[in-house]
Structure prediction request, 530 residues.
Amino acid sequence: MAWGLFFSTLLYFFAVPTFYIFSTADDVYLMPDDHPAKVVLDHIFSKSRAILDTKSMVKSGFINPYPRKFTRLVVTRHPSLEGYIIKTYLDAQRYYKKKSEHHYWKLRIQGAQAIRNFIELHEWKDQFKVPQKWIYALPETPAPPAELLRKNYILVEEDMEIYSRKENKMQWASKTVTPDLLNHLFELLNELGLHDCTSIDNIPFSKDGRIAFIDTQTFNEWPIDYGKLTPYLSEEMKHYWVQKTKTD
Amino acid sequence: MILIGSDKKYIDIILILSYLKIMYVYFLLASLVLKFLPCYTLPLWEEAEMQVSVRSFSYKTDHFWNKNGRLKPSYNDFKQWQMNLWVEYSPFDSDIFALRGYYDSIQESMNGNTRGFGDAEFSWAHRIADTYWSRVMIIIPTGKEKASLRYGRLGIEADLFYSNCFTLFNFPIGTLCGVGYRAYYGFPSDQLRAYLDLTSHIYSNLYWFCRTQLEYGVFNGKRQEHFNQIVLNPNYRLFKVQLSLVGFLANCVYFDVGYFQHIWGENVGNNGGVIGGLGVIF
Prediction:
């Protein structure tokens, strides 16, 4: 009986999930306890159930926390979290494509890591950058109403200080975009299968002059629609890009 | 109570039989009462050969009844506009074939917009005796399952109807009551269905029409595969009432306008909406 008690106790500590459905192997994605943003996040999310719906997000101080058109993703900022962007789904939402939110956060982190490794390998840090990303586990309480599809994790990433949409368009049409930049960009997109990164909204110019990869969820997915980028280039670079993507 | 799993089939059958017994008793009582009441001429369209109608309804809500029937906020503004096409063909007095298809446009503040065709329904109603009708309906998926729009699953429904007419305070009233069982085999939940229609003249070409409908899920559907609080939850129950005005614009063209209201439910949205349409009788 004593052995039974001993083994059942062992089983409890090792078989019960560490936190919700995250396995210990996924801990690498979690925000470390000593991260400077963690204290602020703990404070915000322990006061109230901030991600219940858009009203609760606004009440908690988040800026413009409205679901995006296609992905229904909420991308927002908080005045207390300078230098960081928050990406989240709300408790009042269904799962996007029937997959839980942490599935997408893990993909984004993996995609970002793949891009980062490629940039470092080719020493293109002066042309491209990608944010560091972490998964923040929401506290168990306060909890949403039981009828809602509770979300347990949000994604926190570095703010890349990108240009506004209008300014970004101007950058892409300017002499900042050179054949060398386009060659490197093509290689990145082609090698990593960055299916969604031909939209300039996903690869905007940032204020330090580099292109930031801010949507890293989709990778290893081909074919790439290179034509999406063409309309935004200067006349000279349009011709270059079309030739480049046609022959390679 | 959710009953899932092949090991619980025995219990499933007992429970379903008990539900059917309740509905059968309801049906028998209603038909017995109505049988002995005096009759009047039924509305014109009962004698027609073919009927085509286009009907739309709009519905919105931001609350729902949870699995215990308690009203809760959904934190999600839900708006639905649906366009229905009905085609009914009656080659003989004793048979009616009907096909229904619909197109939905749904807007949810939290989940975005959803548009598309819902599952179609093809039915055959047959007069089995005097004022008793049977109906078999096949629910035909028009695509894969899509939240708020369709289950995307094949289903079958069998119903028994009783039609009659009576006078109440010198007002002639036509009635149709029925019970049925809709089966989906695993997802979503099977449903017991009950219908009660009443109609009567207001003026020569104007009628009022009242429908009460019960969709009573037996809760044997898989949970969470198709999460939805407002519409098309895999395990839901709903009792609703519809009141309409039906008028004839010409001998063979009619319109109807009305309002429907969800009265009670579980795992379904509350509130109601407006309904309206045009039909042609050949």
Summary: Confidence is low (pLDDT under 50) at residues 1-11, 29-45 of chain B. The radius of gyration of chain B is 19 Å. The first strand of chain B starts at residue 50 and ends at 65.
